[in-house]
Task: structure prediction
Amino acid sequence: MRKFKLSSIYLFVVFIILYAPIFYLMFYSFNSGGKMYGFEGFTLDWYRELFQDTRLLIIVLNTIIIALLSAGISTILGVLGAISIYYVRKKYTQNMLLSLNNVLIVSPDVIIGASFLILFTILGIKLGFTSVLLSHIAFSVPIVVIMVLPKLQEMSSSLIDAALDLGASRFDILSKVILPYITPGVFAGFFMALTYSLDDFAVTFFVTGNGFSTLSVEIYSLARRGISLNINALSTLLFLFTILLVIGYYFIITKKNGRATGLGARK
Result:
């Protein structure tokens, strides 16, 4: 009982440390005084000013489009990559491919961003929407692979053998056996790629060109000009949007697991 209380206190302190700065930022986004101290009164003026900024709304739209496109494309490529790694027969080759995949995840964002900048310059790709999209796809694919591969490794080979015995084609096995089984991993990979794209600053900072920006780069630019509660309002909306993504992912996975449990009970 004592250990349980100590662990609960520890978790409470950790969550306070993690979330206190965020709630502090959110609280002062309603400050009529325009400062990060001395709360003078409640106001929504900073949010109104935020939604009246046409340039910022365009940047928000750019960010969402980049995030959705990169998450969707990287999910498709990541699923195919995970399946390819899973079906490599030689264990040494499989481990080498997985290690190469993991290197891209743990590599510093600054190095990745600089590498993409050099690559796009050599290839003559103009910095802007295309360069940001390609770089976001590139760093999101390894994340999807990591999310999908464990589900493939959990899958029993007897499922595929049974499908082959029943006359299923390779496409049928992929579409009706493998993909339904790894769906939770696919959704996890998609949402992780989406949040990474929305959150990324270092790589995006290197590959954005004149006339194109994303929210992370724009927030950095606003912060350099000085403290403005517009940043608080924008950050608050981003945080709430992220929470909605997490809740949506939770309900999708819960519903999927509930269906799987129901089918298992019927069998």
